[in-house]
Amino acid sequence: MSQRKHRVEHGLRDVLTEMIAREVKDPRVRAATLITVTKVELNVDLSVANVYISIIGDDATADGVLAGLAKAAGFLRGPAGRRLSLQHAPELRFFQDASVDMTEKLAAIIRDDEERARAAGREVASRQPPGPATPPEHGRAAGPAEPVRGTPAGRADQEALPAAAHDKKEPA
Fold first, then answer.
1. Does the residue 119 lie in any domain?
2. Does a structural domain hold residue 141?
3. Is CB count within 10 Å lower at the N or C end of the chain?
4. How many domains does the chain have?
5. Do 28 and 64 contact (CB within 8 A), yes or no?
6. Is the Cβ–Cβ distance between 81 and 11 less than 8 Å?
7. Sign of the CA dihedral running 46, 64, 26, 96
């Protein structure tokens, strides 16, 4: 992705977020509890901008918001282009961003599964955010300090001494 395209996408997202909140007076757009511009994608020649909107509200409200924004696209296009100092402002096309809804649905499924596991008496693993593994400390071997989950604690391969320790013969 070109640096200019990336810069214009982010600038357009910020400008549209502000303009929708302050300058769009359409009652269909104002009916939504919360409207967020989640992403802007420009085509190669920067002539068309697909603007993805997250809308908090029911489906009827979301449809009304999209219709109101489509109607206000011409009103938003000129001032947005001027604020970004673009010679040709892109055509604005509004779409509902389904990723936010999908994230909420997946989180609800996970919560429901955890509740069922607790009700069945099973231990629920704590969720840790993914991240880089911590480096081993000086003088300590890398690897798990505890037995691997779901395996018997007394397995020979987990508690065995290194092969070099078994092969050493004591001097006579």
1. no
2. no
3. C
4. 1
5. yes
6. no
7. negative
Asked whether residue 116 is assigned to any structural domain, the reply reads: no
Report in angstroms the alpha-carbon separations of 82 from 30, 47, 89: 24, 15, 8
CA atoms within 13 A on the CB side of 6: 3
Query: 70-92 pLDDT, tens per residue?
Result: 999 999 999 999 999 999 999 99
Name the residue among 44, 47, 51 with its Cα closest to residue 87.
47
* pLDDT tens, position by position, 11-53: 999 999 999 999 999 999 988 888 899 999 999 999 999 999 9
pTM: 0.62
Percent of residues, the chain, with pLDDT higher than 70: 72
Is 127 within a domain? Answer: no
- Domain span including residue 89: 3-102
Tokens 């395996």 -> residue: 151
Burial status of residue 140 (CB atoms within 10 A of its CB: 0-12, 13-18, 19 or more): exposed
